């Protein structure tokens, strides 16, 4: 998993904690029927760019894979 993705996951987890949400809440909010896809996304980075963008937009995280490039 890239450094950019690790930093993005940290931000996602931080925002979920701030909102009092779990992975199932996030999955529902982005239109998924199961939290398994969210788990895969956060654990291994497995997921479409569209899903990453939807999660980022929902949690107010700006294009992290570009933002953290080279950090």
| C-alpha termini separation | 14 Å
- Quaternary state of this entry equals single chain
Order of helical and strand elements = HHHHH
**What does the main sheet amount to?**
none
The dominant shape is globular
* Unreliable spans: none
Please give the CATH class.
Answer: Mainly Alpha
For the record, the CATH architecture stands as: Orthogonal Bundle
Total count of helical runs of at least 4 residues: 5
CATH topology (level 3) name: 434 Repressor (Amino-terminal Domain)
Strand content: under 5%
Structural class: mainly alpha
Mean pLDDT: 87
Tell how many strands the DSSP assignment holds: 0
Number of domains: 1
Structure write-up:
- It is globular and about 25 Å long.
- The protein is mainly α and 71 residues long.
- It has one domain: 434 Repressor (Amino-terminal Domain).
- The chain has helices at 3-19, 23-29, 36-44, 49-58, 64-67.
- The two termini are 14 Å apart.
- The mean pLDDT is 87.
Relevant terms:
434 Repressor (Amino-terminal Domain)
Please outline what is shown here.
The protein is mostly helical and 71 residues long. The chain is built from five helices and no strands. It starts with a helix and ends with a helix.
List the helices and strands and how they pair.
Elements: H1 3-19, H2 23-29, H3 36-44, H4 49-58, H5 64-67
Helix pairs in contact: 2-3
